[in-house]
Amino acid sequence: LKTGAHTIGSSHCGRFSHRIHNFSRSSRIDPTLNPAYAMELRQMCPENVDPRIAINMDPATFDTFDNAYYKNLIEGKGMFTSDQQLLTDARSRATVNLFASNNAAFGNAFAQAMIKLGRVGVLTGNKGEIRVDCSRPN
Questions:
Q1: Domain 3-119 fold
Q2: Three-class SS string for the chain?
Q3: 64-95, pLDDT tens digit by residue?
Q4: pTM exceeds cut of 0.85
């Protein structure tokens, strides 16, 4: 559910470029991606693009916290493989469909998940850190 946070923000091209340039020997583009969306991503993130270039994770409403992220998944517009797998995996498909059709259900579930996550393994003082880059320790 925390991937629902991908409804807002951006990602550097290098985090998903394998899906649009060299997915496999038989297909340069991940076949689970919407073809038109894949072409848009390729235009914004050509091969050997500057690694500082970042693209909105939600192409529909990138600056609004809403359920468009889930609607995008149904349309094959999940930027990351892990996002798109929420729809292709039978265990999470019903949740994707629910959240795509019900913004309030998504908002309530996200709030509850954030409350729970806020209580897990909180480190304080010199045992914890606020990361400058979430992908690696400072």
A1: Peroxidase; domain 2 (1.10.420)
A2: CHHHHHHCCEEEHHHCCHHHHCCCCCCCCCCCCCHHHHHHHHHHCCCCCCCCCEEECCCCCCCCCCCHHHHHHHCCCCCCHHHHHHHHCHHHHHHHHHHHHCHHHHHHHHHHHHHHHCCCCCCCHHHCCCCCCCCCCC
A3: 999 999 999 999 999 999 999 999 999 999 99
A4: no
Could you list the residues known to form a binding site for heme b, using ranges: 6
Please state the residue numbers annotated as binding site for Ca(2+): 7, 58, 61, 66
Binding residues: 6-7, 58, 61, 66
What are the boundaries of each domain within the chain? 3-119
Assigned token pair, 89:
């995996």
As a whole number of angstroms, the distance between CA 79 and CA 57 comes to 6
